[in-house]
Amino acid sequence: MRKPHTRLTDAFHNFAKQLAAEVGSPWAFIAALGIVVVWSVTGPLFKYSDTWQLVINTGTTIVTFLMVFLIQNTQNRDAKAVHLKLDELIRCIKGARNTLIDLEEMSEEELDNLQRQFVKLRRLR
To answer: What is the pTM of this model?
Structure first.
């Protein structure tokens, strides 16, 4: 039996994946552009009031706030998948250093040392 947290995580991922696909479509851009055009055109009607400006400012702030979480979720999942694929390639290639698996878990100092090793290898070629 799966934990409720896992079901919630999976449900959010599915929601985020679907919404990201829709929000990234040309139709979403056209809709957003349409909203901005309608808002701009109504400026004279509302005498460019503070409330008129507040509508677009509030709307864009809310959308941006929510999109940060959506984008972060999809990026985290995509990065995890790429890391796992690379780890599998490292694991199965003869002569590859298995110590490179899970690099993302290394400290900054360890990563810097590894980077220096690769710079030296490039210079030797």
So the answer is: 0.68
